[in-house]
Specification:
With 171 residues, the chain is of the alpha+beta class. The chain is built from one helix and eleven strands.
Amino acid sequence: EFRRVLFRSKHTMKSTILKIKEPVKFIKSRSCFILAIFFFLFIQSANKATAQNTAVKISQVYGGGGSASGATYTKDYVELYNSSCTPVSVAGWVIEYGSATGNWGSSASNYFTLPAGATIAPKKYLLIECGSAGAAGTALPVTADYSTTNINISASNGKIALFSALNSNLA
């Protein structure tokens, strides 16, 4: 038995009658349907995790805090920004410092692990005050979200990175 379906082409504006022998079945069985749903949810969760990981960026770094060379602030800082529309947990993520020619997090004083519960709200910043307070400069004008005596950032050169785990940049 055939069904008749009216089809109007956008290009010719003519009506055509198509004969369809049986309705199109996109999913033929319940197991295929369940598998399709599982795959969709898996891809969505992977995309969400990737999007959250790429949504957090280092927005500012200040090095040389407290040094005698005319420092503005007494301490160094690293500021993170969440560019997404959802909160992102950064618990366990690590800020690692390395000298210009040195390795990342080469000693315990060159990294800071964000504590459990550390979350950045959507379109917000997270401020980490770093290093030992020096004699020159003034205190930061805002209260830092976290403070560590680790990571004394050079005023002239060096590198800072954000990793999902300690030394996760190593193969």
